[in-house]
Automatic annotation (TrEMBL):
InterPro entries: Acyl-CoA_Oxase/DH_mid-dom, Acyl-CoA_Oxase/DH_mid-dom_sf, AcylCo_DH-like_C, AcylCo_DH/oxidase_C, AcylCoA_DH/ox_N, AcylCoA_DH/ox_N_sf, AcylCoA_DH/oxidase_NM_dom_sf, Mycobact_Acyl-CoA_DH
Full protein name: Acyl-CoA dehydrogenase family protein
Biological source species: Actinomycetospora termitidis
Gene3D superfamilies the UniProt entry points to: Acyl-CoA dehydrogenase/oxidase, N-terminal domain (1.10.540.10), Butyryl-CoA Dehydrogenase, subunit A, domain 2 (2.40.110.10), Butyryl-CoA Dehydrogenase, subunit A, domain 3 (1.20.140.10)
Cofactor: FAD
Residue ranges of domain Acyl-CoA dehydrogenase/oxidase C-terminal in the record: 228-379
Length: 384
């Protein structure tokens, strides 16, 4: 359990709630470009007020508080119906790994700008033939003097067309087993030879991108950790992504379910179909809530990456897809009608969230891969 005194967290929660009420969260537009600009300004507002990097070290520009403080602020942010900052890939995924494995210069130069939103980061991990099997990546980096020359392609790279930096996985030694020959580079997205191409999703949004790298020169000083030892750092990055996303999404889903219930009540509907959908959603959320309590304890203990991170991801997948499918299911065929409000539910919101939720079992490591990790590393089952 958290070792932070309850009264300290209560006082912190009250201060966060008071600040959020005073500043007022911004309205988030549907247009993707306008949304990006609003959320970037919101990130700067949060940073200036000292609400970002709560559990990061002081040297990284953070507040050196605990993960319990971070969770409290996430809860209050979501319950105030305030949006998340745009730079979550940096804040939740890449930043913790740079803080742990980076040089003093990397931490000093990169992390404060990441926190403030001055620099937005993307994550160059997946490739067209190396998504779930990430260790099969083919993007090559060859050292020439003081620079790596990088050639290859990445895909599903969120916000790459807006990002200033990319955490890029590359193969630096093709002669060894696939995990052993991977390195982790920090790449300036303005470097010559980088091309980004947004991909339209079934939600209509275009924040996913393909990234093409054609003889891109990356300074050797931008290597994170040691050459050919990037897989361990990758495990840390993915563990941060899974645990951080689980804590945040649990609160977001709780609030989404509260919003749906409020809309259903306004619609005056109380029948068996609605009660069954709400009941199944609450069961999924109680399971996720129990899991995130364990997650918070692990983060507080600072155990680093663990196969239990994969359990977090699987439980989150199930809860997210269950809750949003149950709500969207109540829309019936009207989910495809913009502006419709069957049963009091706003079709635009719930149809969009349901479509996006289908990716939950893919991004951050597919459900199949997570089950394999649980089977082999937690249950001790033989490799298939």
């Amino acid at each position: 359990m958290s070792t932070v005194p309850t009264e300290e967290l209560d006082a912190f929660r009250a201060r966060a709630r008071e600040w959020l009420a005073a500043v007022g969260p911004p309205e988030v537009p549907l247009d993707l470009d306008a949304r990006f600009a609003v959320l970037r300004r919101w990130q700067r507002t949060l940073f200036d007020a000292g609400w970002l990097g709560l559990s990061w070290s002081k040297e990284a520009g953070g507040q050196a508080l605990t993960h319990a403080h971070q969770l409290v602020f996430v809860e209050e942010l979501v319950r105030a119906r305030a949006p998340q900052p745009i730079g979550l890939i940096g804040l939740e995924v890449v930043g913790p790994s740079i803080d742990r494995y980076g040089t003093d210069e990397q931490r000093r130069d990169l992390l404060p700008r990441m926190l403030s939103g001055a620099d937005i980061w993307c994550q160059g991990f997946s490739e067209p033939e190396a998504g779930s099997d990430l260790a099969s990546l083919r993007t090559r980096a060859v050292l020439h003097g003081d620079h790596y020359v990088v050639t290859g392609q990445k895909i599903w790279t969120s916000w790459a067309h807006e990002a200033q930096w990319c955490a890029l996985l590359v193969r630096t030694d093709p002669s060894v087993r696939k995990q052993a020959g991977i390195s982790y580079l920090l790449v300036d997205m303005s470097s010559p030879g980088i091309t980004t191409r947004p991909i339209r999703q079934m939600t209509g949004d275009r924040e996913f991108c393909e990234v093409f790298l054609d003889d891109v020169r990356v300074p050797r000083s931008n290597l994170l950790g040691r050459e050919n030892e990037g897989w361990a750092i990758t495990s840390h990055t993915l563990g941060s992504e899974r645990s951080g996303a689980t804590l945040r999404r649990r609160v977001e889903l709780e609030v989404a379910l509260e919003d749906a219930l409020g809309q259903l009540r306004s619609g005056g509907i109380d029948d068996d179909r609605v009660r069954a959908a709400v009941g199944r959603s609450h069961i999924a959320m109680r399971v996720l809530d129990a899991q995130t309590r364990r997650t918070t304890d692990r983060l507080a203990a600072d155990t680093g990456p663990t196969p239990v991170d994969s359990v977090d991801k699987l439980v989150l997948n199930e809860a997210e897809q269950t809750v949003l499918a149950e709500i969207a299911g109540l829309l019936g065929p009207l989910r495809a009608v913009p502006g419709a409000r069957p049963l009091g539910l706003r079709s635009d919101r719930w149809a969009h969230e349901h479509l996006y939720s289908r990716a939950a079992s893919i991004y951050g490591g597919s459900a199949q891969v997570q089950r394999t990790i649980v089977a082999e590393r937690l249950l001790g089952l033989p490799r298939g």
